[in-house]
Specification:
- Among the domains are: about 330-450, no CATH class; about 610-780, Leucine-rich repeat, LRR (right-handed beta-alpha superhelix); about 790-920, no CATH class.
- The protein is about 30% helix and about 15% strand.
- It contains 30 helices and 29 strands.
- The strands form 4 sheets. A 13-stranded mixed β-sheet has the order 13-14-15-18-21-22-23-24-25-26-27-28-29. Strands 1-2-3-4-5-6-7-8-9-10-11-12 form a 12-stranded parallel β-sheet, with helices on one face. A two-stranded antiparallel sheet has the order 16-17.
- Helix 13 links the parallel strand 7 and strand 8.
- Helix 19 (about 495-505) runs antiparallel to helix 20 (about 510-520) and helix 29 (about 825-840) runs parallel beside helix 30.
């Protein structure tokens, strides 16, 4: 099944399994899940990556991504961009389910003049609801920003979880007309849960700051505009602003957190609610008189006793007597602070053992006591007596099933141990009937049906999803660090982000993790820059050989210095396992511990049987191959025979390739090629011409890249090397710094490959007296070469003869790339224009040459915007003028590039670019 063709329902399930909104059940406020910022950012990043898979995935993933906004953090400018997005794409606003908003009072940021049309249209659309100035709108700098949050609220009609920061809440309400004026519902009407606090609310143990203004012009006005919500969470409401009943008829769950209310204000809040089912009072400290006690709270709740089933009474203020709690006859879950019942004093160091009997609701199945450590000893007798009083002889009559004691600050004293001891002696008939006494509560989140579905996806589909993100499967090689670099380097953005996405998917569940881990091991060595990476990777392969079968690409280094121990058991076992093929200093035993690290690279190579692409530094490959005693055990090859691509490159120091040659003899590369003869693409640097003594197994080779900048690899050595290859299709040659072969030499040697050769890239500065062999390469369609190898201006010949380039190049070229020095470009204009024009044909189908690239190389080391452009612009205008006919069916690209920095600037149009413009090879 193609990943793009997955059913939409299945794509929704996958995306929603990573959605923060879908992971959190906002309808069960008693169990909040705290997700830290890095975790949230990682999940959102994974969703963004899924948006880029393809159009069908992007369409759905973008919608799911908009389920939640404002978490883990928000910004004023982010709110502006979000407001614009949902205005320009209203359907995205209808997918917002969970949002955190904070009113923007004054944003010191001007919209671009060409960028304010959406804002004016938004304001005009909702002018019946907003308190706008007269038209035409002419806002001073930043004044428009106060309407951003109201505009967002008006464009998220199906939001369920609304969290409003109470700072500047009165300012927010000032931007809205009264409902009676607008005759419209101002806010979304599908809201299920409202949170009003100073900052986003994640978990109840993280107190909500305040204060919250509940007057009609602030929080009270906000709540009156919202209808039908079930859950209300308020952080520290201000007592003075609660002077009239609020419109809370639909509220079934009320949380007052970090609160310091009096009985009268609490009565106003509770009486305004409908048939309340869940109530939580998380008290704070106050200097104001008459704060509510546990008795006050329970007395207020008696008006809701017919429906109330859960209550939390956590107040710091002690009541003289607690008698009202037992009247809450339907409450089955209660959380209460012991300090609201009793505090240890010199006159009463111990609570009477009967003090808690017949105090709490009679239908309780769970009770949670919050107690300070220093009070535990004094509470032990009373708590034990209460627990015993709820253990009848008949197990079917036992109502109380769980007692949890949360002891704060440190390890409980001996008194707490006595409670556990007493509980263990309680009469019980089986483990299920024994009261549970625990020091702390762990809240588990139930797996949703969507998570169950995601876990049961077919393995083939999970592989498709992971491989669609994998850098190896995406062929993001161009983003990866240059082969051979050892220093710490930043990982490339695209490949790194894809890799991080697979990491995130590996945590979805065990089933996904099993598959994602295999996909993660498709490649090694492209992101791992520390030498210890090879050591850890080798250990992973040794302990889990199955993963080695999934490695497709590897960049392996031989480690020469170690700062960790090499005496681990797994390493000794691995060396012993492959002792038959490894050439240890003493053949009869394992090498000394200090020498074992030299065989890490060998062990990796021996445990990746399906490896497809191998990258290695030339010096490392020489050393590694010499430490193999043999590559065969009987007829079985020890190293991978599946390798199709071999990159042998140098160590690169500060952008300059260091010396060191590649050994082509039986001791090294010849031996390797004999064991792995299926190589189709090979990149070799500085081959040692003296080591080319016998035939290499290159009959399957189709692409060859040869760097011989630091070796005397002459015509005869090149002829011999090419004779070993099969029907070569792509050939690249670099030989700039030493006397090497000429363009004519190379093309003459390639005539034997003319039936298969399609692409040619030649960089040699060695001039030939004539250049006639290229036209014999009749199937070459792409050619790139250094013009210096053909012609350079001299005093005797400052300008190339106009007809010099005619009948020189392969006759079937479709793309020609010329690298020309800035001192040469003016001298070749006439000849170049003549050649380009000669390839014009009236019929588009008959014109073979379609693209000419002119790369002007300069030694000026400046920013791209400061590169010399005047002369090159003049040259471009001349070429364009003389090649008008060619441009009807073809294209000419001209740019100037710095020789050292490889950064350049286009000349053939007005668009600048600031990247490496070398084609990837």
């Amino acid at each position: 099944m193609n990943l793009q063709n997955l059913p939409q329902e299945l794509i929704y399930i996958i995306c929603e399994s990573l959605c923060l909104h879908c992971q959190i059940d906002t309808r069960t406020p008693a169990s909040f899940l705290h997700i830290d910022s890095p975790g949230e950012r990682g999940i959102r990043k994974t969703q963004l990556d899924l948006c880029l898979l393809c159009k069908s995935w992007g369409y759905i993933a973008q919608r799911v991504l908009h389920h939640s906004y404002g978490f883990p953090k928000r910004s004023d400018t982010g709110d502006v961009r979000f407001c614009r997005t949902i205005f320009e794409k209203p359907e995205l606003g209808r997918f917002v389910k969970r949002i955190y908003l904070r009113q923007i009072s004054q944003l010191d940021w001007d919209l671009d003049k060409d960028d304010d049309a959406w804002l004016l249209k938004s304001l005009d659309k909702f002018s019946d609801i907003l308190n706008l100035p007269p038209k035409p709108f002419n806002f001073s700098k930043g004044a428009w920003s106060s309407f951003i949050i109201p505009l967002i609220l008006l464009q998220i009609p199906t939001v369920e979880d609304l969290q409003i920061d109470t700072r500047n809440l009165d300012h927010l309400m000032q931007q809205m007309k009264n409902p009676s004026e607008s005759n419209l519902h101002t806010f979304p009407q599908n809201i299920f849960k409202v949170t009003m606090s100073e900052g986003p609310h994640c978990q109840e143990i993280f107190p909500l700051r305040g204060p919250v203004d509940l007057s009609d012009t602030a929080g009270g006005g906000l709540l009156s505009n919202i209808q039908g919500f079930d859950i209300l969470i308020i952080g520290n409401p201000t007592r003075q602003t609660i002077n009239s009943p609020l419109q809370l008829d639909s509220v079934r769950t009320l949380h007052l957190i970090d609160v310091c209310l009096g009985r009268e204000e609490l009565q106003l809040l509770v009486s305004a609610t409908g048939p309340l089912e869940v109530f939580k009072y998380m008290g704070g400290f106050t200097q104001e008189p008459n704060p509510a006690t546990a008795q006050d709270i329970c007395e207020v709740l008696t008006t809701k006793k017919d429906t109330l089933t859960e209550a939390a009474v956590l107040t710091h203020y002690k009541a003289r007597h607690l008698t009202a709690a037992r009247t809450l006859e339907n409450v089955t879950w209660l959380r209460i602070a012991t300090k609201s019942i009793w505090k240890r004093t010199e006159s009463e160091p111990t609570l009477h053992d009967q003090a808690l009997v017949d105090v709490f609701p009679p239908a309780l199945s769970t009770i949670i006591f919050e107690a300070d450590r220093e009070d535990m000893e004094g509470l032990s007798a009373a708590l034990t007596k209460y627990i015993l009083s709820n253990c009848p002889d008949n197990p079917e009559d036992q109502i109380l099933k769980s007692v949890q004691i949360h002891a704060h600050l440190g390890i409980p004293p001996e008194g707490h141990a006595s409670i556990i001891q007493y509980a263990s002696t309680l009469p019980h008939h089986d483990a299920q009937k024994k009261p549970a006494v625990r020091l702390r509560t762990i809240i588990y989140r139930k797996a949703s049906m969507k998570n169950m579905l995601i876990q049961n996806l077919q393995r083939e589909i999970i592989f498709l999803i992971c491989e669609s993100i994998c850098p190896h499967c995406h062929k993001l090689y161009e983003d990866w660090p240059a082969v051979g670099r050892m220093s710490e380097i930043p990982s490339p953005p695209a490949a790194k982000e894809h890799r991080q996405t697979i990491f995130s998917l590996s945590f979805v569940c065990k089933r996904w993790g099993y598959i994602a881990q295999k996909v993660l091991h498709h490649h090694f060595g492209y992101f791992e820059t520390h030498p210890r990476a090879e050591f850890l990777f080798c250990r992973t392969l040794s302990e889990n050989p199955e993963l080695g079968k999934h490695v497709k690409m590897a960049r392996i280094r031989q480690i020469s210095a170690y700062d960790w121990g090499l005496d681990e058991e797994w390493l000794a076992k691995s060396l012993n396992k492959f002792s038959g093929v490894l050439g240890f200093p003493e053949a009869s035993s394992l090498p000394e511990i200090s020498q074992r690290g030299e065989f890490i690279a060998h062990l990796i190579l021996l445990q990746v049987p399906t490896l497809d692409k191998l990258s290695m530094q030339n010096g490392h490959l020489n050393n590694i191959m010499r430490k193999f005693r043999t590559l065969f055990v009987g007829e079985q090859c020890a190293i991978p025979r599946s390798i199709t691509t071999l990159n042998v490159t140098p160590l690169k120091n500060n952008g300059i390739y260091a010396g060191g040659s590649l050994d082509l003899s039986k001791a090294c590369i010849e031996r390797f090629l004999s064991a792995s003869p299926g190589i189709r693409d090979m990149f070799i640097f500085n081959p040692d011409p003296q080591s080319l003594r016998s035939r290499l197994s290159l009959s399957n080779l189709r692409t060859l890249t040869l760097y011989s900048n630091f070796s005397h690899f002459g015509r005869e050595e090149l002829r011999l090397l090419l004779s070993f290859t099969g029907p070569l299709e792509i050939f690249t040659y670099y030989g700039l710094y030493l006397n090497g072969v000429t363009l004519q030499d190379i093309c003459e040697l390639l005539i034997s490959k003319k039936h298969s050769l399609k692409s040619l890239h030649l960089e040699t500065s060695e001039k030939s007296q004539y250049f006639t062999a290229a036209k014999s390469l009749t199937n070459v369609s792409e050619m790139r070469f250094l013009f210096k190898g053909f012609w350079s201006p001299t005093k005797a010949e400052p300008i190339l003869e106009e007809h010099a380039l005619l009948d020189v190049y392969p006759p079937n070229l479709s793309t020609l790339w010329l690298e020309i020095s800035e001192t040469t470009i003016l001298g070749v204009l006439d000849a170049l224009a003549k050649y380009i024009s000669s390839n014009f044909r009236d019929e588009p189908a008959e014109q073979k040459l379609r693209h000419v690239v002119i790369q002007v190389v300069t030694n000026v080391e400046r920013e791209p915007s400061e590169l010399p452009m005047a002369i090159n612009k003049s040259a471009w205008e001349k070429i364009k003028k003389r090649c008008q006919s060619f441009l009807k069916h073809g294209r000419i690209t001209m740019f100037v590039i710095c020789r050292k920095t490889r950064r350049g600037r286009l000349v053939s149009d007005e668009v600048d670019f600031h990247q490496d413009v070398w084609p990837k090879i």
